[in-house]
Design brief:
The structure is a homodimer. Chain A is α/β, with parallel strands linked by helices and about 575 residues long. The first copy, chain A, is about 40% helix and about 15% strand.
Chain lengths: ~575, ~575
């Protein structure tokens, strides 16, 4: 009975690290071989890491990527591998090499280049125009890349009608909440539409603002998920594909057989590239392995942990430092950092001012103790007073206001950066998406730092994540008082977020409608949102583009984050109401 | 004798300001009409401003742009106008409306969408596929948009072979040094290749990091420039086009007549849209008007002045504030700001530390006096000491270093931002391209501010611009001592730039080769650059991507600025040597 043992190597690559990426690919090839796999697959652009952006405009980078691929080719004996790389000739292509026994048997060029959202692939690549079928182990295998499979009329059609029984789709699909389900539904539909087994190998790991979630999977010809890998971790998912079932299903479908004939008559038979013949191998069948997806709150949390870990480590830092205010944002950020890096690599600083409440300091101390991190206490009162003296002359006759509030936030930023410069610790910032959207934050103050862990997490979700983390710990790692207190920046007496912003449970849905969904003012009012709040939010979001432009990078977890997802001019006079 | 009086309205639009842009277009239509013009042309996307970026993803914005166009259409009686806007149907298009006498006679959709450098037009638009010819005043006129004319085999071919005698190309072409000449040469070649008069209407004004330089022009069928507008200013360039000369030239070219026939037989005759018949009008012929291009140093200087003016005014600010160090960068920035906004709108601050030399303060005072601006003196010594006390415990046992240097720069940043927040002044930063490239600057310190005037100007060019400005003034507005002193950050005793960086005359060419030209290490060494310097520069440029990502926007004046021109990942392990 024909079958194919497939190993999907869901690896964590690093952009530009051609040597390490190739080494890792070679290690996984060895492991797949030792497990008697016929075929091992790697993510899109596994050689270069994804996305390499304008590195692709450097001819030397393209050459070096080919050399790294060559090393992989030479190490690939006795097994077939599909490896993402950059192909080049008269132009460059986002490509998959089909490697067998020390030779490149063929190459697929991505047909559909995404150029929306966070993607700019038209900036770099020429699109491929065909989609050959490879005979691997005597079985027809169609290889395609990422976006290729999002089109119902894409390469999968000609490949399936050309008698491919297995589709290998290699990917670098960035995470956002809910995408896993959407992806799985699409893959199931493609598989059953085309009576084909679909294997989907995704990248895992953080790269700047993106997190790739892994969760590689295999869907059978009926659209059933028969294998699923871990989320947010490297994984090697090995499965025996029941190719005979594909053959049987197709035999039983006369309409499909008729349509195939018509398609082939119209388009011609697709190119077929021979890789290796069918060899009967005795091996013990593998049990199916299907990791269950995480529930929504755990999923977001793990995305933040992995994104933080990878940004810190891949930029070469060991330790991080952050300011604890006693509020929920910095508390959650600290816990995520500890989960990502270990308590020994996280330093917290409380920087009380004359406006800090006793509770804030106590809560910071409790949090630091709970997660086992060192807490420095650096009061800012005297430094603040020094500024007021220095500015006494120009500020004469003015009242306490935003300037004085921001001075304090910027002193804290300066202190954290001082520690960073002195000891080589990366500063984590603690602003959430509700603040980022409305500009309720101080540029060079609480926005000062190298990485903004929860930048794309709305405040209402911050609370959910805090509660999730406490549930997981089975005790209040984040003190209840932190969760229950009224949000305040504590930059003037009796300040409350609610004095400046709408209540978060009203604010967040409007931000979602405006920023993520690009809804118009009229639509939002029709959706039942309060008109005054909608106007306020639109105005705040639009006015603060300049501030976001200077914000540190942070992890995208929603369908549209502030970053390359959403490119708005700073000079922008458009008024939509 | 057939002729066409053409008015090119080189206007300064504002992104998103649909009402003001339409009002301005209507005013120029009136003016062109009063000058007896047959045809008036406006820049690419004149209705919306350019580039509107992701505003284009808002359906309401597209609708509102159509409404604004409709107002222009209604006000366009007795004259023909070509106006850039966003057309929409099943998709959206970068389009030119050909409007005559209160009606839209036809529309051209841009055929070639740039998706490189600063451009992302594939993100938004569907490309047009045809290029109709419009009969305006009885004369064949081909309309196309920007990138369309950069392709020798683009729409101009079918339009010229389809008997268009005039090509109207509307543009939003961002400035960089040397581009004007390159553009003019290309236009001259297109015109003589196709024996056609080419009119090129460019946008003028600043938009975020881009400056559009105007310099609209008309090139006759022999490739001679017959009209040229101002650079960096609004202008209405009116000229009588000698269409009979085109006819004569074509009659005298039997090869062209043969090729035209072959082309039309192969491609079919292009679509022709009638707009208005030939009407003999008596009017006094206009003298040719050809503004001479500025010399290179003046050109860059004016780009900086306009870019600064427009960013400040279009973001709604009246006044700016900047720190004067006594060095050449801040001195030049101050002079540019004064030229852009007037001395009454510029405030300078000297913020001496214990490491500031007496000369630095005196030079700052001299500069402020020379340009007639107010100078605040806010010493930072006591504030700095307050920080050292606050940090005494964590810093115990460490030596004075980068941390202490940056503290000072960040105190200055905090003071300037305090003044900004208190009085609503925009902070200008004063870092040059050599610093931006190498990261020789303090994040949240001297990099703190809303706009980075000279961010894309290499240090060696800074000197040239300073000398240019003094020559123009016919006295040393920028004191000679400022120009002659050795560059220093003055953040520690006896500090000199040369202790950290290669000398600027060696550094700048390497930055140009690496950043602007994307040369590889080996190429740069082969070009004769010192190997150690090349290695140092590559390392510094690569390592400081994170810093640039949080830098304020600044004016692009080179072919590749740090900004959306050059998109490199922060996490980037690529080693090219």
């Amino acid at each position: 009975m024909r079958s194919l043992r497939l190993a999907m190597a869901q690896i964590n690559t690093t952009v530009g690290d051609l040597t390490d990426n190739a080494d890792k690919i070679l290690r996984y090839i060895d492991e797949a071989r030792s497990l008697d796999a016929d075929l091992v697959t790697f993510p899109e652009m596994a050689i270069t890491g994804y996305p390499p952006e304008d590195l692709l405009l450097k001819p030397q980078f393209i050459q070096d990527n080919r050399k790294a691929l060559q090393r992989v080719v030479e190490g690939c004996s006795g097994i077939t591998a599909v490896v993402g790389f950059i192909d080049s000739g008269q132009d460059i292509y986002n490509a998959a090499a089909i490697i067998h026994d020390g030779e490149v048997a063929g190459v697929h060029h991505k047909n559909y280049l995404p150029n929306y959202g966070v993607f700019d692939e038209n900036r770099y690549f020429q699109a491929g125009t065909d989609a050959p079928i490879f005979t691997i182990n005597g079985i027809g295998v169609g290889v395609n890349i990422c976006e290729d499979i999002w089109y119902a009329t894409g390469p999968i059609i000609s490949q399936a009608y050309g008698d491919a029984e297995v589709i290998i789709n290699i990917n670098a699909s960035p995470y956002h909440t809910g995408k896993g389900k959407f992806r799985e539904r699409m893959l199931a539909t493609r598989a059953s539409d085309n009576a084909v087994i679909v294997s989907y190998t995704n990248l895992v790991g953080g790269q700047d603002e993106l997190v790739f979630d892994g969760q590689s999977m295999i869907v059978d010809e009926r659209g059933e998920v028969v294998a699923r890998g871990k989320q947010f971790q490297e994984d090697l998912i090995v499965a025996d594909l029941d190719v005979e079932a594909v053959f049987r299903t197709r035999l039983h479908d006369p309409r499909r057989r008729k349509e195939k004939l018509a398609f082939q008559q119209a388009q011609g038979a697709p190119k077929r590239i021979f890789v290796s013949p069918w060899v009967e191998r005795r091996r013990k069948p593998l049990p199916p392995r299907c990791v269950e997806p995480l529930p929504p709150d755990a999923e977001v949390y793990e995305a933040l942990v992995l994104g933080t870990h990878d940004y810190v480590r891949k930029t070469g830092f060991q330790k991080v430092v952050l300011g604890l205010s006693g509020g929920i944002d910095s508390s959650l950020t600290a816990v995520i950092a500890v989960d990502a890096l270990g308590p020994e690599n996280v330093l917290c600083v409380t920087m009380p001012s004359k406006f800090s409440s006793r509770g804030s300091i106590e809560d910071s101390e409790a949090l630091a103790k709970n997660v086992g991190v060192k807490l420095l206490n650096i009061p800012i009162r005297d430094t603040y007073d020094a500024y007021l003296v220095a500015l006494a002359e120009p500020f004469r006759g003015t009242e306490f206001g935003i300037a004085e509030e921001n001075l304090q936030a910027r002193i804290r930023g300066n202190l954290l950066m001082g520690l960073s410069n002195k000891f080589g610790w990366l500063v984590l910032t603690t602003g959430n998406k509700s603040e980022t959207a409305t500009g309720y934050s101080t540029l060079y103050g609480d926005m000062a730092g190298g990485f903004a862990v929860i930048k794309d997490v709305p405040k209402t979700l911050i609370y959910e994540l805090a509660r999730y983390r406490n549930r997981k710990a089975e005790w209040d790692i984040i003190p209840q008082s932190v969760i229950e207190k009224e949000p305040s920046a504590e930059l003037k007496p009796d300040q409350r977020d609610i004095d400046t912003l709408p209540p978060y449970e009203k604010l967040d849905p409007v931000i979602h409608a405006y920023v993520v969904e690009d809804r118009s003012f009229e639509e939002m009012v029709a959706m039942g949102f309060d008109e005054a709040i909608v106007k306020k939010v639109i105005t705040m979001v639009d006015r603060n583009e300049y501030k976001r432009r200077q914000a540190p990078p942070g992890i995208k977890i929603t369908p549209r984050a502030f970053g390359r997802d959403r490119r708005l001019p700073i000079v922008n006079h458009y008024k939509s109401f």
